[in-house]
Amino acid sequence: MSLLQSLDDLYFDNRFVAQLPADKQTENVCRQVVGACYSHVLPTPARDPKTIIVSSDVAELLNLSEEVCASDDFTQVFAGNRLVEGMQPYAMCYGGHQFGQWGGQLGDGRAINLGEVVNAQQAHWTLQLKGAGKTPYSRQSDGLAVLRSSVREFLCSEAMFHLGVPTTRALSLVLTGEKVWRDMFYDGNGAYESGAVVCRVAPSFTRFGHFEIFAARGDITRLKQLVDFTIRTDFSELGEPSADVYLKWFSQVCLRTAQMVVHWQRVGFVHGVMNTDNMSILGLTIDYGPYGWLEDFNLIWTPNTTDSELKRYCFGHQPKMAFWNLAQLANAIYPLIGDASLLQATLNESYTQHFQQGWQTMMLEKLGLPHSLNQTDDLLLSDLIHLLQLTQTDMTLFYRQLAKVDFSVALEMLDLTVLDDAYYTPELLDHTYKKARTAWLEKYYRRLRDLNVSETERVLRMNAVNPLYVPRNYLLQCAIEEADKGNFDEIHQLFNVFRAPYQENSQWAKYSQKRPDWAKEKAGCSMLSCSS
Ligand code: AMP
Ligand code: MG
After folding, report:
1. How many whole angstroms separate alpha carbon 15 and alpha carbon 458?
2. Confidence of residue 373 (pLDDT cuts 50, 70, 90)
């Protein structure tokens, strides 16, 4: 396949703009945008842009050659300074429930879509600049993004892809050369930070909130228009829109959301802000803000300081919060279906049941066990969750180290010393803990024997679903601190490490270490805010 030698060779087919109603007002001032799905808006040019990193994987998706990605033109285009022929920049209108409350109109306050690229495989990929200036939806904010949050968004979206988690992608990370004022912890200690723009890439950036805003405004015509458009463009396998297809579509959204959350629980990802405006209709992880990775296994952990009291979006709540969000989507599309019991039944079947099964299968895979609906397994899993919380246990390392224990020996001969690496305080493991662990290992041992799982099979299975390298907050923070000093090597290094998260590599030993003590209470490592 031939690669494009110039960004001007990109082919755009801007369906969202062509088929959905536009805001008639074209001035870039903040306002309530009624009766439209989007507003035309131009990115604000950046003073002195510089490309930090480009994802070669995403460039390939867009058929861009290495030379194009290394060019100054690339930097100009993906900083928002130049439009390529065919681009029609726009910001989308959406609403959302934030932390359980209806927030009214939100919209792309600092995201500007450039258009939909059609690649050689005829797939549509929307390009979206995050941090390229104000839009009609910016409300009181500046429409900008800072380097620290952009590094986090860039690295995590690409890491998630390689972990096998549905996600929006990131093409590029560009410094704007502008300074941006941020009060990171909203405590009066503001500072200027470097501005940056990430180009995000996804088949669509439509969120649950896109539908909610029309329902909230009683604009059923636009609601139907957007649902029909979404079905025709991204769910065409369901057939032409009809009452029956609306329900099938909702069922699909439920299934995809369930799968996404199962993956989050598998890899220990905590989104941090699961508001309905941050829920993708395609079931993609979207909007990487104050997210975090479970280190010590703690169901009520959240990295988001804004949520530290209620812990609405902590690790253990993510499945039920996704359900709550889907219920808001169901409310929004109710006028098109007119039967609440059908929506309710779909939510239960396609989300709750599907999640339950998916979660159980996933957890058994993490242990190298085949799927079987069996009460012994229920107990095995619930005991494991209990065990992981008895002492500070690094979730990622626990599963990788468990794969290293040799289960081919007699039960009494199991050598558990490798597990020590997974504990934050291995010297404090007491009698109660060891007793619980022995009891659990006995159950696990028997299950492996009952199901005839060989050691080779077990290790292969486990290491295929239990990653070794994940974007631990402290690793990202180290890369950010270097980047703030103008050194981007660590960003490149982490990008490479996260491209092969399941494959142990002796050169990368330092990237699989549990969180060091210095990072325990450090801003950016354990505490993050929505400020970005
Ligand atoms: P988030 O919490 O990042 O999902 O953002 C919630 C809403 O606030 C969205 O409508 C964003 O577009 C908007 N927003 C967040 N940060 C900014 C900013 N710096 N400038 C303008 N809008 C923003
Ligand atoms: Mg958002």
Report:
1. 47
2. low
Please write the tens of the pLDDT for every residue from 90-103: 999 999 999 999 99
Q: Whose CA is nearest to atom 20 of ligand 1?
A: 143
Residue nearest to atom 7 of ligand 1 (CA): 106
Helices 354-366, 243-267: crossing angle, 10 deg rounding: 30
Nearest ligand atom owner, CA of 286: 2
Residue with tokens 């890439």: 201
Place of tokens 């009460």: 375
Q: How many angstroms separate the alpha carbon of residue 103 from the centre of ligand 2? A: 12
| CB neighbour list of residue 343: distance below 8 Å, 6 or more residues apart | 247, 250, 330, 333, 334, 337
Looking at all shown ligands, the one closest to residue 145's CA atom is: 1
Dist. CA 491–CA 437, nearest whole Å: 38
- Geometric angle at alpha carbon 310, from 309 and 315, rounded to 5°: 105
Neighbours of 470 (CB within 10 A): 23
Residues with CB under 5 A from ligand 2 (ion): 278, 287
Cα Rg, the chain, nearest whole Å: 24
The number of residues in the chain equals: 532
Is there a contact between 125 and 55 (Cβ–Cβ < 8 Å)?
no
Residues with CB under 6 A from ligand 1: 106-110, 137-138, 141-144, 273, 277-278, 287, 289, 530
In 3D space, the residue among 20, 10, 40, 11 whose CA is nearest the CA of residue 232 turns out to be: 20
Q: Which two tokens stand for residue 388?
A: 């992981």
Task: Indicate which residue of 108, 228, 277, 287 is catalytic.
Answer: 277
Distance from Cα 326 to the centre of ligand 2, integer Å: 17
Residue with tokens 């609405």: 312
How large is the average pLDDT for residues 369-380? 86
Distance from C-alpha of 240 to C-alpha of 246, rounded to nearest angstrom: 10
Separation of alpha carbons 258 and 352, rounded Å: 8
Query: Is residue 8 among the annotated active site residues?
Result: no
Which atom of ligand 1 is the closest one to the Cα of 289? 3
Instruction: In whole angstroms, give the CA distance from residue 224 to residue 335.
Output: 9
Type of residue at 439? A
Share the mean pLDDT of the chain.
Answer: 97
